[in-house]
Design a protein that fits this description.
Oligomer: single chain
Shape: globular
CATH superfamily of the largest domain: Type I PLP-dependent aspartate aminotransferase-like (Major domain)
Structural class: alpha/beta
Radius of gyration: 22 Å
Strand content: 15-25%
Number of domains: 2
Number of strands: 15
Largest sheet: 7 strands, mixed
Strand order of the largest sheet: 2-8-7-6-5-3-4
Number of helices: 14
CATH architecture of the largest domain: 3-Layer(aba) Sandwich
CATH class of the largest domain: Alpha Beta
CATH topology of the largest domain: Aspartate Aminotransferase, domain 2
């Protein structure tokens, strides 16, 4: 067992059961630091932040705001106040679809891509309906890559915002943000990056990428569910209106109105996910100590798994971009992917099958039942690949 694996109790539990976890694109397993800080919070430190006049609240508020600073440094944002806590990537995108509502005029356009997760489609569809906007889509080719040569066909002077995924959650494709962001900037188009799948794939530098907004979920980065982050350039604060109102986001309230606090507090109404934020901070400390991006081997495992799966007749890899990382999708011809997924699961390998909340993409690729998806994290190793290959072979014997 590797040094990194030792920090994840569930890995040790699964190995004793001869089982494997390869559903990391859905959520990652949690290290000891998360378990310990959640236990400490509920046993010894429960309180609220930004509200109390007592020592527990004061201590937690300092820890909470320190995590905001940690995230600033993790994604290399310019200012701490550019970090806004949410509960998930999905909430972050919904936040923007409401907070930017006044930025749009009737007949304005929003550009998305055909590979987006439903969470980066539905909020913009709803906004388009409310404001009478038009949605355009940058197409995807058969390899699972964006057809960037179509850019000028899908944008015009009315295009105000471009929202796209950094890494496809269904195919693993890395979209070339180094090319896409400048294209948008040249047309004064705001950019929103869905970085949910990117957080364990590479170190993010929002100043270097020059994106306007970026969203991600803590649970995809070994933290608990229920905590997420929205990064917004400080220069765009005036474009954003709070999408939720309540305690903690005001400086004064009367019976006739209120005065909102300065960002980011004005965007964080109500009691935040305190324990989740603290746990996310502990994860960032842990990953820094592990030199995470220098030591992860998920790309090597992906290549190994892909080469072994290609040896199985009747099996087809879906998404062949050389940029993909962590995620491997495939189908067994003449078999429903749900049947294949269930048999792999029964063999003790946790994967996901279906549309992966990417129905438009699956329809574009003519995958009526979707795909089977294996997704890797830094605690996975060659043994997990061996479990997967064995499970697929056993499933094939039953299905074909």
């Amino acid at each position: 067992m590797s040094e990194f694996q030792k920090y994840f109790p569930q890995i040790q539990y699964l190995r004793k059961k001869n089982r494997s976890y390869l559903d990391n694109a859905a959520t990652t397993l949690k290290p000891l630091c998360v378990i310990e800080i959640l236990n400490q919070f509920y046993r010894e430190k429960t309180a609220n932040v930004h509200r109390g006049d007592h020592y527990l609240s004061d201590e937690l508020t300092l820890m909470y705001e320190n995590t905001r600073s940690q995230i600033q440094h993790w994604i290399q944002a310019k200012n701490t106040e550019e970090i806004i806590f949410t509960k998930s990537t999905t909430e972050g995108i919904n936040f923007l679809s409401f907070a930017l509502e006044d930025f749009f005029q009737e007949n304005d356009e929003i550009l998305l891509t055909e590979m987006e997760h439903h969470s980066n489609i539905l909020p913009w569809q709803a906004l388009a309906k409310r404001k009478k906007l038009k949605l355009q889509f940058l197409p995807v080719d058969k390899n699972g890559e964006l057809v960037i040569s179509e850019w000028n066909k899908v944008i015009n002077k009315k295009t105000k915002l471009f929202a796209f995924t950094y890494y496809s959650n269904a195919l693993g494709t890395r979209n070339p943000i180094e090319e896409l962001i400048p294209l948008a900037k040249a047309e004064n188009i705001l950019t929103v990056i869905d970085a949910a799948q990117a957080m364990t794939a590479e170190q993010i530098n929002v100043q270097k990428t020059d994106c306007d907004f970026l969203v991600f979920s803590g649970h995809k980065l070994f933290a608990p569910t229920g905590v997420g982050v929205l990064y917004s350039k400080k220069t765009h604060f005036e474009k954003l209106k709070p999408w939720q109102l309540g305690g903690g986001m005001v400086t004064d309230v009367s019976l006739s109105g209120y005065e909102r606090a300065e960002p980011p507090q004005c965007f964080e109404a109500g009691t935040p996910p305190v324990e989740g934020v603290l746990a996310l901070g502990s994860v960032l400390d842990f990953l820094n100590k592990q030199n995470f991006f220098e030591t992860t081997k998920s790309k090597t495992l992906l290549s190994y798994a892909e080469e072994e799966l290609k040896k199985i007749s009747g099996l087809e890899i879906i998404g062949t971009s050389p940029t993909k990382k962590n995620i491997l999708s495939f189908i067994l011809k003449s078999s429903h992917c749900r049947d294949l997924g269930q048999l792999i699961s029964q063999a003790g390998v946790a994967i996901r099958s279906g549309h992966h909340c990417c129905l438009p993409l699956m329809k574009k690729l003519n995958l009526s039942s979707g795909t089977v998806r294996a997704s890797f994290a830094a605690y996975n190793d060659e043994k997990d690949v061996e479990f997967l290959i064995s499970a697929v072979k056993k499933a094939k014997e039953i299905l074909l």
